[in-house]
Amino acid sequence: MSFTLATWNINSVRLREPLVCKLLEEESPDILCLQECKSPVDKIPLEAFHALGYTHMVARGQKGYNGVAILSKLPLEEAGAEDYASLNHARHVAAKLENGVTIHNFYVPAGGDFPDREKNIKFGQKLDYLTEMRDAFHKDSPKKSILVGDLNIAPREDDVWDHKKLLKVVSHTPIEIEHLAATQDAGNWVDVTRQDIPDGPLYSWWSYRSPGWDEADKGRRLDHVWATSDIANSGHSSRVLRHVRGWEKPSDHAPVFATFDL
Questions:
Q1: What is the rounded distance in angstroms from the CA atom of residue 147 to the CA atom of residue 213?
Q2: 5 with 257: CB under 8 angstroms?
């Protein structure tokens, strides 16, 4: 069984319903994982997605904030959702495909603007969220699983436009990178994107605040596709659809794709 999966922080699924439909029509991934849906589950515009063949969904939502959804052409069943760090936020949902693969869709907290948990509660929440993810993977080692989403951390030097300038900027600080690496190690997760594209700058997010985002190219790779080591070698054809960031009224994130032969 071969399937293509995409992950995309959509920054409001209702506001950007036309963009979701455009992506589904043009690229036709089998599975699309969305983050920051900013919608209760019952307000997600399913009719348009159903019309394009995406007749299966698992989701967690809340009004105006957060929210994660997995849209699929393939049959799937819900496999749970966790409230790490007890934030009462809709930041995780999981689904299982008929071939036994579990897909985890995450929206890790952004962490605010200042990288100090004593002065910025949001930064502490982010670190706590990652710590609880790590502990959960230690306790129950995942197998035959894929983890995707906006993890809000660019771990490598070539995952950001300027490593030295961003060392003290939330999303690329050493403590965040250490927490993400510990989480990855705990689940024996493989970074499929970088397995496929091992070298060179690679970004999936460009700030709305940066005029001329394409020319300046001050990006960061915040969106990730991981797989457990038992299936990671089945992943291939990874790509970031950079041009989607240039669509009219876009999300500030670009979709990330990968294909798996399982």
A1: 28
A2: yes
Local structure of 12: helix, strand or coil? coil
Residue type, 101: V
The full DSSP string for 184-219 is HHHTTEEEHHHHHS-SS---SEE-TTSSSHHHH--E
> By percentage, how much of the chain surpasses pLDDT 70?
100
φ, ψ for residue 101 (rounded to 5)?
Answer: -75, 130
CA distance 72 to 59: 11
Place of tokens 């989607």: 244
Element (H, E) at 178: helix 174-186
- Residues 167/185, Cβ–Cβ less than 8 Å: no
- φ/ψ bin of 133: left (φ > 0), alpha (ψ from -120 to 50), beta (otherwise): alpha
Name the residue among 262, 258, 213 with its Cα closest to residue 239: 258
How far is Cα 178 from Cα 78, in angstroms, rounded to an integer? 31
H/E stretch holding 76 reads strand 76-80
Strands of the 92-97 sheet, one edge to the other: 76-80, 92-97, 102-107, 145-150, 223-228, 189-191
pLDDT at 211 over 90: no
Distance CA 41, CA 13 (A): 11
pLDDT tens-digit profile of 127-136?
A: 999 999 999 9
pLDDT in tens, 120-158: 999 999 999 999 999 999 999 999 999 999 999 999 999
Domain 2-261, CATH: 3.60.10.10
Q: How many other β-carbons are positioned within 10 Å of the β-carbon of residue 239? A: 17
Question: Is residue 108 within 8 Å of residue 177, measured between CB atoms?
Answer: no
| Contact predicate 237/223, CB 8 Å | no
